[in-house]
TrEMBL record:
Enzyme class (EC, first level): hydrolase
UniProt-listed InterPro entries: AAA+_ATPase, P-loop_NTPase, Signal_recog_part_SRP54_M_sf, Signal_recog_particl_SRP54_hlx, Signal_recog_particle_SRP54_M, SRP, SRP54, SRP54_GTPase_dom
Pfam family, one: SRP54
Organism domain of life: Bacteria
Protein name, entry field: Signal recognition particle protein
Domain description: Composed of three domains: the N-terminal N domain, which is responsible for interactions with the ribosome, the central G domain, which binds GTP, and the C-terminal M domain, which binds the RNA and the signal sequence of the RNC.
Entries under Gene3D superfamilies matching the protein: P-loop containing nucleotide triphosphate hydrolases, Signal recognition particle SRP54, nucleotide-binding domain, Signal recognition particle, SRP54 subunit, M-domain
SUPFAM superfamilies (alphabetical): P-loop containing nucleoside triphosphate hydrolases, Signal peptide-binding domain
Keyword check for GTP-binding: yes
Similarity comment text for this entry: Belongs to the GTP-binding SRP family. SRP54 subfamily.
GO annotation terms (biological process): SRP-dependent cotranslational protein targeting to membrane
GO molecular function annotation: 7S RNA binding; GTP binding; GTPase activity
Catalysed reactions, as listed in the record: GTP + H2O = GDP + phosphate + H(+)
Amino acid sequence: NLSDKLDKALHILKGHGKITEVNVADTLKEVRRALLDADVNFKIAKDFTTTVKEKAMGQNVLTSLQPGQLMVKLVKDELTELMGGEEVGINLSGTPTVILMSGLQGSGKTTFSGKLANFLKTKKGKKPLLVACDIYRPAAINQLHVVGDQIGVEVYSEPENKDAVAIAQNAIKHAKANGFNVVIVDTAGRLAIDEQMMNEIANVHKAITPHETLFVVDSMTGQDAVNTAKAFNDRLNFDGVILTKLDGDTRGGAALTIKSVVNKPIKFIGTGEKMEAIDIFYPSRMADRILGMGDVVSLVERAQEQYDEEEARKLQKKIAKNEFGFDDFLSQIQQIKKMGNMKDLVGMIPGAGKALKDVEIEDDAFKHIEAIIHSMTPLERTKPTVIDGKRKIRIAKGSGTKVEQVNQLMKQFDQMSKMMKMMQGGGGKNLARMMGG
Ligand code: GDP
Ligand code: MG
């Protein structure tokens, strides 16, 4: 996958005290190949490496103190730029705000309509109305009703009406009369672009003049996603892109190319089938993720949503004072377990996506880790530096694990503490520095 390959390409530079022009050129060639393999359009991949090379030369990478790190930073920044730079929110003006979903069948429109309604309801205090304009399959209307029930949002439908434009207009009237301040219109899709579908959604679009027209695309469809985006954009001139099915594993190709081809921002990503599996799209986090760092910031944010504030403050103090110990690690793990879907979460941990790709992740994935920590004395937990070879053997015996497993945990713990400390002291710069060494 792309992150593996980029990782490998950048590895050439990482750790090198000194790099040469040949080195840079080799690395960029690898980066370009990785991008092409990930379905990034040829011209974009070429422009990308040219820009990075120019910047590298301009910033005297070759004579800088830590050339490898500087290169990694340049690649990361350029990836971020390619995906739009800053995050872009959705336009919530209008009473009600009218949001129109577009995209092929199976791209995730209905699921995302539900996720967005839930997001706007719980995070923005809105009162959304979902509208079923997929009039061809009775099952589609039912599906939206199921979603609506799940999140406690009303669904407007007219099962007997075969006029999508009229349904959408009636729904907006209904919303105005009943105090709904957001109207999310779910539409029909086809398996491939066809004229009839395009005409229908274009008619709905013209009739209701949405404040936000969103194009939903399955990120697993690679280069096809880009062609579809182009076709929809030519017709609807949409406002933003939703990338769905970005669960766990990283597939960056579509994200990298779509923005450049249609010049519209990616606004949200879908990361699972559940209603909570929605995230705002942050280009720099996506770049981190593509570079194989894992989406640490999202992970921490999701974790924090589950914590009470007090807990988080205590933890921050400990990290700042270098007092983060295995007891804290253990309670972190317990928090993570509470958050549910292990696969989603593990994919966000740096390196873990790769390491655990082929491993079936069970809910007791942390069993060994917990056993090992439970076999430590209180002193060992608060002051891991006292754990020497002898103690490791004892801990392994006590927990029914191998010394290598204890070593591995100690290493993970060490990395995690370092990472937490860095994230505290000023975000992006530190993350970038971390990548270099
Ligand atoms: P629509 O035809 O565009 O309305 O697509 P649906 O919303 O019905 O979604 C098609 C399938 O994709 C369903 O099985 C969804 O559960 C699934 N799906 C949608 N979004 C995601 C996502 O972000 N991750 C995963 N894993 N599945 C998704
Ligand atoms: Mg649907």
